[in-house]
Amino acid sequence: RKKLAIFASGRGSNAEALHDAIKAGTINGDIVVVVTDHADAGVIERAERWNVPVIVIERKGFESKDAFEQAMIDAIAPYSPDGIVLAGYMRLLGPTFITPYENRILNIHPALLPSFSGLHAQGQAVVAGVKVSGCTVHFVDTGMDSGPIIMQNTVPVYADDTEDTLAERLLPIEHVTYKEALALFCDDKLEIKDHIVHIKG
Ligand code: GAR
């Protein structure tokens, strides 16, 4: 089984969906630690309920991004995670963090990448007037939402949608997609060749 560190900045509904799938036996992994950059993040209460240790590491405590990321590396090292699962973690990770975990960091983004990367992805989709949007689970590289795509699923976008109504329609699809993608990762079924993810057997 894979040891997983979940990183989340906010409410943690994706984290909860993954926890549920682990408890239901559909993901061959265990959440060994939750890391958050916000002392008031909703995910903290959830992790306490699961009896999973929580590490709060706020950016403001460090003089540089590099020092911040090195502190996160050091803090999670005792848990020796096999995979890092970003679930609403709202910071761009740099090489200090990513290099030691190369191809072992997953993220979910609430748009069909490479469209609408960055913040307010659902709002960007509404403003663009696209008729279909969705979510993307991908490996993380040092670019902004640019790593190899693992899985995507779609939802319709309606003319009277707002950022919030689209986000609400998307959320359950995110949960389903992340569970499926993380299950494949934990079963060692994902292989990256030239930036393309192949699903084995
Ligand atoms: C989700 O919609 C996730 O896709 C998004 O934040 C939300 C977190 O919700 N992530 C990003 O926008 C990453 N740039 P949650 O805390 O309930 O899982």
What share of residues are in beta strands?
A: 15-25%
Strand order of the largest sheet: 3-2-1-4-5-6-7
Largest sheet, strands/sense/barrel: 7 strands, mixed
Helix segment count? 6
Stretches where pLDDT is under 50 for at least 5 consecutive residues are none
| Mean pLDDT reading | 98
Number of strands: 9
Using only CA atoms, what is the Rg?
16 Å
Please estimate the helix content: 25-40%
Give the topology string: H per helix, E per strand: EHEHEHEHEHEEHEE
Backbone structural class:
alpha/beta
Oligomer: single chain
Distance between the termini: 19 Å
Bound molecules: glycinamide ribonucleotide
Shape: globular
Pathway: Purine metabolism; IMP biosynthesis via de novo pathway; N(2)-formyl-N(1)-(5-phospho-D-ribosyl)glycinamide from N(1)-(5-phospho-D-ribosyl)glycinamide (10-formyl THF route): step 1/1
Enzyme class: transferase
InterPro entries: Formyl_transf_N, Formyl_transf_N_sf, GART
Organism: Veillonella absiana
